[in-house]
Structure formats: structure tokens, C-alpha cells
Amino acid sequence: MTRKFVIAALLAGTAVFAAPAQAAAQEAPAAQEPTAPDASDATADATIANTNQVDDLQAKIELLQAQVEALQESLEGVKKQQAKAVPSWKGGPEFADKDTGFTFKPKGFAQFDTGYVGFPDGDERRGTVSGLNFQNLGFNSRARRLVFGAEGTLPGRFGYKVEFNFAQGTVDYEDIILTYDFEKAPLQVSVGNFYPYSSLETMTSSRLGSMLERASFTDAFNYNRRLGIGLQFSDKATDSYLVQAGIFSTPINDASFTRTGWQASLRALYTPTLGSTRLHVGANFQHRSNSQESLGAQYRTRPLTQITDQRFIDTGTLASSGDDTLGVEFAAIHKSLHVAAEAQKVWVRNTFTAAELAATNADPNDNDVATGTALNGNPSFWADISSWATSSPARPAPTRVASGIARRCSSRGTTAAGAPCRSTAASTMSILATALTAAPPTPRRSTSTAASSWVFRPA
Predict the structure, then answer these.
(1) Given this model, what pLDDT does residue 118 score?
(2) What number of CA atoms fall less than 13 Å from residue 120's CA on the CB side?
(3) Are 275 and 333 contacting, i.e. CB atoms less than 8 angstroms apart?
(4) CA-to-CA distance for 217 and 304, rounded, in angstroms?
(5) Among 23, 280, 293, 419, which residue's Cβ finds the most Cβ atoms within 10 Å?
């Protein structure tokens, strides 16, 4: 019992001493807690809060900058679209997209003729006399040309030109051309319906000529647009030379399926500048073959106007397989004065005698059909034209064309009966025309992608 009491007393004493020590250990931390917040903690919190605000502001600034840049890009795009939509003026409105190389320029012009065509004793004659219909002479007016179209460029160095003539209540084709211009070579290729490379008068646009009409030989020698392909070599830097060559079929409005007629053309120009004078020297050659189903050609011309359909010079249809044409041309521009002259000669090739004509048409082994008058020889025709214009007040400037027309006969040209080729069978024709204009001419390069030559336009 004594042992149990002693142990119990010892355990009780240990508990007494342990309890105060543990209570003191628990009261010590409570006594050390501060009654005010720590200054370092407040600074850290403020720094963190400020950093968050700066980050938010920086993010907002960056967002606003991105929005401004996007708006600027959109605005630049709108400006570019507006620039593309607003046409420039180059003799007419032109829409252009320089980035893609696309341009579109609508064009058009109208020409009207009014005049009088007389003939000796014409008022006393009625109907058709000696092949001339006097009812179609006298006073008349008509729409000469009502042309509408467009021209421009396409991406890839292509060009185009399309024109339609609506005069006389019908639709006729003018230039229908697609071109390709080589970037690193002096070469341009043209495909479509355009004038074969021939005389200066033919290559000059009807809008830019000094006279009311082209020279009569362009009508007499049948210089018309044809379907074909042409090559053009030129000095693109100084414009000092031009060489054109092409091969052509029949006109685009030939609706027949016997389009066997064809033509080859060659033209070369040298256009140097000597001081203040620009010169133009050139030559051209054409080889034409008539259609197999219609081996014949007719050479005729109107009296320097389109207000009548009567021809005072007409060979009738000559039975032949084709012809060859050689021409020379000259022009010069010096300040307000320009002069131009050219000559053309046609050699009718492989005419048919009466026996050959009958034998050809009776041959069942081919489709050759000779038509027209049989001849015992190959006739030839020639024509020349000269013109000059100045604005000098010392010389009055009439605007009408004065002309002289003469017919001559070649010793080689006779009919099948052996008679000399007089009147409508004339084998040689000379046409001379001169004119003055009231305004000084300005040299203007031809805009046609099919033909490029110096033309003279009143300023």
C-alpha cells in the first residue's frame, strides 16, 4: 500500500509540473502577435496591385493599336478600290487596275456625210444609162460611221480591241483584235480581224486622217479588213523602225463556207528624227489569191465620197487567180506643216483567156470556178496620192478634197476579142488627190494594236 501511495504521489507531482509548463508554452505566442499590420506586407500588396493595373493598361493599349492598324489596312483597301473605280481620262474614260494589268477603255465615234455628186447632163437623165444609175446621184446625206467598242489590256501582257459599226441600220465588224506583247523582245503578235499591212492611207485610222475620206485607191484595190495573224517588230524605245508581216483569210463577215481566198502582206518603215523634223519612209507588198470558187476580182472606186454607190471607174470582174501589189510611202512633219505621198501598183495575176475560162469551169476534177471577163494578158493598175497641210495664214485652207482622176491603158491589157482595154476595161488607173486643212497637224502614234504608223491629226 505504501508503494502504491508513493507512485501515485510521484505521478501527481509530475502532472502538476507539466501542466504549468504547457500552459506557459501556449500563452507565449499569443503574447507575441502584433496589434498593427506589417508595413512590408502593405508595400508588397500595393506593388502587386499596381503591376496588375499596368498589365491591364498595356493590354488595352496593345488591343487599341491592333484595332487602329486593322482600320488603317481597311482604309487603304478602300482607297485602292476607290482608285480602281474612278476612271482616268485619256481621250475617253479608262478604268485601270495597275496591280493586275487590266485596263478597259470604252470608245466610239460618229461620222456623217452630206454632199452632192453631179454628172454632165445628169439632171436630164433618169434610170440606169451605160451602167450608171443616175437616180443615185445628186444630193444625199448618210451616217458614214457609227462605231462603238472598247480597248485595253489584260493580265499577262495581252491587249484587246473590239469595234462595231452600226451605220446604215446594220452591224458590221471593225477591228476585232487580240494581241500579245513580248516583254524582252521587239515583237508583238496580233490575231483577229484587222487591215492587212498595206498603204499608209489604209493603216491610218479614219478618226485621225487629214482628209474627209481615204484615197480612192484603197477602195479601188479592195483594201479591206480580213481575219488573220500578224507579227510586228518595232523599236519600242525610240520608235525609229517598224516591220510588219501577216497572213490573212477572207473578211470576218464572209458567211460562206468556201473561204479559200487568202493574202500575205509585208510592210517596213523607217521613221528617223532629223532635228525638229520627223520623217517616214516605207514600202509594202501584198500577195492575194482569189477564192477557188470565184476566181475573179473587180477594181472600182466611188467619186471620193460615200454618199453614192455609183462608181465612175469600174473594170468589172476580171477572171484571174489573184494579184500582187507593191507600194511606197513617204511623209514628213515639221512643226505645223506635214506632207505625205505614196504610190501603189497592182499586177493582176494569171488571168484567164476565153478558152481557159471555159476549160476551167468544165473540169470535173476540182472546184475551181473562173468568173468575169476573159483577158488575153495580165493588166496592171497604179495609183498615187499626195497631200500637205499647214496652218499658215498666208494660204487659205479649204476643207474639201480636190482630185484628178485619169485612166490609162496598158499595151499588155486587151480583152479576149483583142480590143484595147478602154472605159470599164481600163488596165491602168491613176488617182491623185490633194487637200488642205485649217489646223496645224500634230503627230500621233496609231493606237491600233494591229497596225502602227505615223498619222497626222489636226491639233
Answers:
(1) 86
(2) 1
(3) no
(4) 10
(5) 280
Q: Are 145 and 168 in contact (CB under 8 A)?
A: no
Q: What is the pLDDT of residue 42?
A: 65
Cα dihedral 200, 105, 100, 179 sign: negative
Q: Is 372 left (phi over 0), alpha (psi -120 to 50) or beta?
A: left
User: Regarding beta strands 337-351 and 380-389, do their DSSP bridges make them parallel or antiparallel, or are they unpaired?
Assistant: antiparallel
Q: Alpha-carbon distance 346 to 341, whole Å?
A: 17
Taking Cα atoms as reference points, which of 144, 89, 183, 192 lies closest to residue 451?
192
CA torsion 327-342-451-241 (nearest 10°) is 90
Whether the CB-CB separation of 336 and 393 falls below 8 Å is answered with no
Residues 6+ apart with CB under 8 A from 411: none
Mean pLDDT by 10 residues, the chain (459 residues): 51 49 49 57 66 77 87 80 73 86 92 89 79 88 93 95 92 95 94 95 87 88 95 92 96 85 97 94 97 93 89 92 96 92 95 94 90 93 74 33 28 36 29 28 30 29
Question: How many whole angstroms from its chain centre is CA 234?
Answer: 16
The answer for residues whose C-beta is within 8 angstroms of residue 380's C-beta and 6 or more apart is 345, 346, 347, 348, 410, 412, 413, 427, 428
Give the whole-angstrom CA distance, residue 386 versus residue 53. Answer: 90
User: How big is the CA angle at 137 (ends 136 and 138), to the nearest 5 degrees?
Assistant: 130
CA 158 to CA 181: how far, in whole Å? 6
Given a contact cutoff of 8 angstroms between Cβ atoms, the answer to whether 132 and 117 are in contact is no
Residue 135 confidence (pLDDT): 87
Enumerate the β-bridge partners of residue 340: 331, 387
pLDDT value of residue 224: 93
Amino acid, single-letter form, for residue 165: N
Find residue 192's DSSP bridge partners. Answer: 177, 228
Give the SS3 label for residue 161. strand
Residues 173, 178, 183: CA angle, nearest 5 degrees = 155
Give me 15's grid cell.
502532472
Which grid cell is 120?
454632165
Q: What does the pLDDT read at residue 63?
A: 86
> Which residues lie below 8 Å from residue 65, measured CB to CB, with a gap of 6+?
none
The one-letter code for the residue type at 222 is: N
pLDDT at 238: 87
- The cell numbers describing 96, all together, are 485601270
Q: Do the beta carbons of residue 459 and residue 440 sit within 8 Å?
A: yes
The answer for residues whose C-beta is within 8 angstroms of residue 87's C-beta and 6 or more apart is 93, 94, 95, 96
